[in-house]
Amino acid sequence: MKIKKYRSMGKTINYFKYYSLVLFIFTPIILLGKASFSDRQVAGMVPKYFARDHYSPELTRTRIYGENGKKVFHLEIKVNRNRFQGEMDYTVSAMASICQYAKRPFDKFVVVMHSENRNATTEMLEAKAGCTINHFVHKKINYERWLRSCAKIEEI
Fold it and tell me: Do 117 and 61 share a domain, yes or no?
């Protein structure tokens, strides 16, 4: 009878060692599964993201700054009036794709669109970052709803 208790105790210890080992291995994977990047690294990724696609708009400026306690990601691009909508969507989609990996999440995206035509006005898009990521990355809301409730386009 003493032997059975000893054996069951040994099995309990072996199970404890096994589960401790599994927990030790998978805890860092679970906690650190998603890569996170500093603001400087995020800003450095943007030109590379735009360079990989032949049809991307020309990127003229990248800024990350704080405004009224909110973190803002600001890009300036040159747009062709024939592809204006597509270039704006591409830029905002790129911002959403890159910024979901930032250490501290962004609150607002700003895209300033300078036209190649001298007679055309410069336009600015301001969008809520969380809502934009939900549309372009997670596909939780449709385009019309995103444009109506999350984005604001104005001439500057």
Answer: yes
**Is residue 23 located within the same domain as residue 47?**
no
Asked if residue 61 and residue 18 are part of one domain, the reply reads: no
H or E element in which residue 84 lies: helix 84-99
pLDDT in tens, 41-84: 999 999 999 999 888 999 999 999 999 999 999 999 999 877 78
- Look at residue 98 in the predicted model and tell me its pLDDT: 93
Instruction: List Cα–Cα distances, 86 to 14, 55, 56, 66, 126, in angstroms.
Output: 60, 10, 9, 28, 16
Do 97 and 70 belong together in one domain?
A: yes
Residues 29 and 43 in one domain: no
Which of 141, 58, 154 lies closest to 96 in space, CA to CA? Answer: 141
* Its pTM surpasses 0.85: no
Looking at the structure of the chain, the number of domains it has is 2
* Structural domain range at position 70: 39-155
23 versus 63: the higher-pLDDT residue is 63
How many CB atoms sit inside 10 A of residue 120's CB?
14
More confident residue, 97 or 100: 97
Same domain, 6 and 82: no
Residues 6+ apart with CB under 8 A from 41: none
